[in-house]
Amino acid sequence: MKNLYLVFAFLFCFVSSYSQGASDLSANASKFINTLGAEQKQKINYSFDDSLRHKWTNLPVGMVPRPGIAYGSLSDESRLAFHRVLSSVLSSQGYLKLTSIMQLDDILNVLYQSAFDSGKIDEKTLKMTQNLNWGHGNYFISIYGTPQDVNPWGLNFGGHHMALNLTVSGKNVTISPYFSGTDPSEVKTDKYAGWRILSKEEDYGFMLLHMLSKDQQSMAILSRETPKDIITNPNSPQRITEYAGVSAAKFNKSQKEMLQILIEEYVHNFEHPIAHSLFSKIMKTGIKKVYFGWIGSTENNHPHYYVIHGPDFLIEYDNVGFQNNGNHIHCILRESGNDFGTDLLQQHYMAEKH
């Protein structure tokens, strides 16, 4: 009985500590803002109702300017504080993916310069890539409203191949839509050869596909041209409203477990309370209601795409890129009906007098 009491006490302390997650995020965001100069504070802060909060893109800054302030313009003090913000909302794997994606932009610049030096590309191509202004410092931070525990507020952090969109209301945090990508998905040359930042998103997808029977694959693999990008990209009016592929209701136990592992790879980029809230919601609705669809090659290093779609969420993964060689990943996680905290805000406004 004593041991059982200790177990319950531990679980209570664990849950109580994680209920502070949103409060920690708000507190760390406030501390970050306080490290900024007056001009930076003016540039970074917008009204919570500003339409910019709902706009995101993964295109380079040279093509689409971002609101807010550039990460590269921050002082060391501000960078230290901002990383506390990131680690308040991201798990260790999510944090390392995000920071590695930022670093990959600098590596991409090195790869293009190396290609030019070796005569593989001409000067025009080199200049074109340089004018895209991708780089570790060209990720922008914008804050909507005031970080605190009462009224809703938001934070967007984005640049080439990253769009983190947070909406916070009380103790609740939503992260939809969350976009990440890598170019290249696998670095092939020079000192970083072998780097695969989104390796599990790719590997687990192939593992699940190859676990399917021939009959299941015939349902999962769709006879369509491999998309050049995720279908629900911000520049496209198209949205996925119908299920496609094979239903997980037709999966055996091992296949369902593999599907869950793949879903968790996306969801668990976020801190425990955020990740477990969404994953518990998915599992409560039922893994049998999730569909898995595949387009393109069944082997890596060739263009391929998959979609995982259930009543509560949507995951898209596309590995095509402009080079059309299966070495450029775009992927997204969306909560159904909760992009930019739509559902969360409805709950807030119904509960509070405004």
Can you walk me through this structure?
The chain has 354 residues and is an alpha+beta fold. The chain is built from 11 helices and 12 strands. It has helices at residues 2-18, 21-34, 38-44, 76-89, 92-117, 123-130, 199-211, 214-220, 253-267, 272-285, 342-351; strands at 45-46, 69-70, 140-144, 153-159, 162-169, 172-174, 178-182, 246-247, 291-296, 304-310, 313-319, 329-335. Strands 1, 2, 3, 4, 5, 6, 7, 8, 9, 10, 11 and 12 form a 12-stranded mixed sheet that branches. Strand 4 (153-159) and strand 5 form a beta hairpin. Helix 2 (21-34) packs antiparallel against helix 4 and helix 5 (92-117) packs antiparallel against helix 6 (123-130). The protein is globular and about 60 Å long.
